[in-house]
Write a structure and sequence with these properties.
Elements (H helix, E strand, L loop, with lengths): L1 H17 L5 H5 L20 E2 L13 E7 L13 E3 L2 E6 L3 E6 L5 E6 L18 E3 L2 E5 L4 E6 L5 E6 L14 E3 L2 E4 L11 E6 L5 E6 L5 E4 L2 E5 L24 E3 L4 E5 L29 E5 L6 E6 L15 E4 L5 E6 L4 E6 L5 E6 L7 E4 L5 E3 L20 E3 L13 E2 L6 E6 L1 E7 L13 E7 L6 E6 L6 E7 L8 E3 L3 E5 L4 E6 L5 E6 L9 E5 L2 E8 L4 H5 L2 H5 L8 E6 L2 H4 L2
Parallel strand pairs: 1-34
Antiparallel strand pairs: 2-40, 3-4, 4-5, 5-6, 7-8, 8-9, 9-10, 11-12, 12-13, 13-14, 14-15, 15-16, 17-18, 18-19, 19-20, 21-22, 22-23, 23-24, 25-26, 27-30, 28-29, 29-32, 30-31, 32-33, 34-35, 35-36, 36-37, 38-39, 39-40
The structure holds calcium ion (2 copies).
Length: about 575
């Protein structure tokens, strides 16, 4: 009893003495400081790996819920957020651009902020939000009308609220911002509306734009209010004026590699989807038609916004294989500094962290049709007959040849973040085994209207599973194990030094697997589908785990035959928090 009283007193002292504000050091060290989670990705390298070992393969079966919190509201939709934990408070974002501060000991709400969204927002893929960033006294998040908002983290009061881009043109924002050197780094969403992908750095204190970097060749960057440099070389890889509405939205937030001082963002598909409109052409001689830097990863200097390197996963992309998926810095078993990234196109790539150069690539899904493989220079070996046909070559000019392509445009892996375990040296990749019928149609650009020029129907590749969590060895590409799931996986993965891999399913199961074998060690039914991202932290000497449950996202909206297969799943909106009680930990 005495011990209990002391523990509670210590916790109260820690809470009241607490608020110093989140520092650059707190952010830089987030992965190793287990008492808080102040960044998206549990560290800006996005490894989603915790060094905590309190929970392990033996005792995880005793993990118990301690509180749950409802996001409320009649409009539920997908909950894709990652909780942040700081100074006794959990921060989560919710659908329709909402933010909540919750007492992490009790699960009671401290404050809630609802962004006032205008009529006519144009989110492509559900009204989701993927998380926030803490820095100083503020918490930052993006809204569906393409704004970035700074709130006082203690009170929820607005500190500043700035426009990223014009929502009427199709821009929105859903990713978690990232803090680097006092700047709030964000991208933009809206690639299906012919917008131009851009990475922005806002001054964290004032909300003023420090620099911008468009992701499509020909567009000018800015630095401190003046034009800086052009992205790429005009018309080197784009024909005519197509670059002006060239797509390449970043969709997801970036990662940051502190060792090379590089921000890494991915850029989405080139617009429109119909790749026959983006062939090699005039006016620059030697135009390759690759459509840079769409479907690429881009390394950016955090001080100036200049591009340091790029690597294009799918040149002249024609299947909506956005190049946006997260790039995770890791160090291999021989001490080499590398990046790992699992692309929508079904290949897992390993790049050199110093210069972004291609090192190797292997399939992480079973039935890739569009390419035979990746050559030694990192360029796909295309199956050109699997490129959806040119509508101008059809009899009536209205519809090009239909092809069945795999993976589907929702990707071998979509936005849902993977994890890299320093415990096993493996990546845990949430993937989906599905394909699509896809065809091209004529299209012209119209501001604020969908700019695809394609039609599609997604289909499952297997009867018994679509979702597939794989343990991928980044030195050989080998799959150590696979966990198959009926519905497509759409939530994040986390691994721990305790030998555990946490993730959730659309069927509502939150699970811990053995990191070496994939065996299921623990699960809990959360009541709605999980498309959120787990976190773990330590509080009062106990290890906690949280996940947000709430089915939605792009699959029910765009999933074709797969959407019909999973239309029985119920919506929701709950945070679930678990711990291993101290008295059970040693047994
Ligand atoms: Ca931390
Ligand atoms: Ca896209």
């Amino acid at each position: 009893m005495n011990r209990f009283v002391i523990a509670v007193t210590a916790a109260i002292c820690a809470a009241s003495a607490g608020w110093a504000g989140v520092t650059d050091e707190d952010i830089a060290n987030d992965q190793t400081t287990v008492g808080d989670v102040v960044t998206n990705g549990m560290g800006r390298n996005l490894q989603r790996f915790s060094p905590l070992t309190t929970l392990n393969k033996e005792n995880v079966k005793k993990l118990q819920p301690v509180w749950a919190f409802s996001l409320g509201g009649e409009k539920q939709r997908g909950q894709e957020t990652q909780p942040l934990i700081y100074d006794g408070v959990m921060y989560i974002t919710g659908s329709y651009s909402r933010m909540y501060a919750i007492d992490v000991h009790t699960g009671e709400e401290l404050w809630q902020f609802d962004a006032r969204l205008p009529e006519g927002i144009l989110p492509c893929c559900d009204v989701i939000n993927r998380g926030a960033a803490l820095y100083g006294d503020n918490i930052y998040f993006g809204t569906l009308d393409a704004r970035i908002v700074a709130l006082n983290a203690k009170t929820g009061d607005v500190v500043w609220n700035k426009k990223i881009a014009e929502y009427k043109e199709g821009y929105s924002y859903t990713a978690a911002p990232m803090i680097v050197d006092g700047k709030v780094i964000v991208g933009n969403s809206g690639g299906e509306f012919g917008i131009v992908g851009t990475v922005y750095a806002f001054d964290a204190a004032t909300g003023d734009i420090v620099w911008t970097r468009p992701t499509i060749e020909g567009h000018m960057g800015t630095l401190n209010g003046a034009e800086s440099t052009m992205t790429g070389t005009l018309n080197a890889t784009w024909p005519g004026d197509m670059w002006k509405t060239g797509g390449g939205a970043t969709w997801l937030g970036g990662s940051y590699d502190a060792e090379t001082d590089t921000i890494v963002f991915g850029a989405g598909n080139p617009a429109p989807w119909n790749s026959h409109l983006r062939n090699a052409g005039t006016p620059v001689e030697g135009n390759t038609g690759d459509n840079l830097y769409a479907a690429s990863r881009i390394g950016i200097d955090p001080k100036t916004g200049e591009i340091k390197w790029h690597y294009q996963t799918t040149p002249r992309e024609g299947w909506d294989y956005d190049g946006v998926n997260e790039v995770v810095a890791f160090t291999d078993k021989d001490g080499n500094k590398k990046f790992g990234t699992a692309d929508r196109n079904g290949f897992f790539y390993v790049l050199n962290r110093e210069d972004g150069k291609f090192l190797n690539a292997w399939p992480f899904v079973k039935d890739i049709t569009w390419a035979k493989g990746i050559d030694e220079n990192g360029r796909p070996i295309y199956n050109e007959e699997n490129r959806p046909g040119d509508p101008t070559k059809s009899a009536d000019g209205a519809k090009g040849e239909v092809v069945f392509a795999s993976p589907s445009f929702l990707g071998g892996k979509n936005w849902m973040p993977m994890s890299y375990s320093q415990h096993t040296g493996l990546f845990y990749v949430p993937s989906n085994e599905w394909g699509m019928d896809i065809w091209n149609e004529p299209i012209t650009y119209k501001k604020g209207a969908a700019y695809l020029g394609s039609g599609f129907t997604i289909k499952p590749n297997y009867e018994d599973h679509i979702g597939s969590l794989k343990a991928v060895d980044p030195s050989t590409g080998e799959w150590k194990w696979e966990y198959k799931n009926g519905a497509p996986l759409w939530g994040g993965v986390m691994s721990t030094a305790g030998g555990l891999v946490f993730f959730g399913t659309p069927e509502g199961k939150f699970m811990a697997l053995d990191d070496e074998t994939g065996a299921e060690l623990w699960s809990f039914q959360t009541g709605s589908g999980i498309v959120g991202q787990p976190v773990t932290w330590e509080m009062d000497g106990e290890q906690y785990v949280s996940i947000v449950s709430g089915w939605g996202g792009a699959v029910p909206l765009w999933g074709g035959e797969v959407a019909k297969k999973v239309n029985y799943l119920n919506q929701g909106g709950m945070v679930w928090t678990f711990k291993l009680p101290k008295e059970l930990a040693s047994n």
